[in-house]
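[audit] Reproducing an earlier prediction to check determinism. Same input, same settings, fresh worker. If the tokens differ from the archived copy the diff job will pick it up downstream; this log only records the rerun itself.
[audit] input (267 residues):
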Amino acid sequence: MEYHIYHIPGKKIGVTQNLEARVHTQQGYLPGEYEILESSDDIDYISDRELVLQKEYGYKIDRELYKLLKTKSMKINVTEQTTTFPYPVSKLKGNLMDNIGFQWESSHGLFVLNLKSINWIMSHVQTSMYNDGRCYVYNKAFANWFSSPELFEDKIEKELPTVKCVKKPLKMFEDIRNWASTRGLYERGDSKTQYIKLQEEAGELAKALLQNDKAEVIDAIGDMIVVLTNLAHLEGVHVETCINTAYKEISKRKGRMINGTFVKDEG
């Protein structure tokens, strides 16, 4: 198995065995937006090189070696009936994505975590009635899907929202939506994860403003607009409609500038 040290300029240096799952799907970066610094099947070499490169590029150095992280496994509980995960549903997908390739045995057969099986789990997971910090799936149902997933895919497809737009869709936003759609963001993503992504980008904008880094300000604002476009779509509305609605509201406001902020008149 080959390990890759990847570099997202200005963001991070990390290690993964699966670029598609870790960098493309989970983090949202495409080929051309990151680079592969080194690849090797020697996990000891890659672990050491990651720390060296993080230091050379001026990034925060990981506290644990990648090889130590990879020896960890999810502490799942497998019974004849169910597989239980030690996470609430809201945090399950991220932990599953971090453990792609993880395998476990049940009385119904072998299970493996990959993008399709994670989608199945997220579509069928149940919160434990005894502890809302844990969740589970039924092994027999999972095994039925695993033995012939094409027979069950029609049952787990996420129903996408009907998107409404009161204005003519703008090409730039249409391009963003087409980009997101072809990469499965609307099918496999959700509004909550996009909101978290928005907060991350807002943090990048704050950092750029404090450092007076104009290039990063432009990049961060652009990233936030992309995230907002996708968040709006997942909520069943075009971002153009949101902008139009907001403008109609603010265009009628009267007020004055106070300490650099426009304060609307009351009443």
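[audit] rerun output stored. Observation attached for the diff report: Residues 154-160 have pLDDT under 50 and may be disordered.
[audit] end
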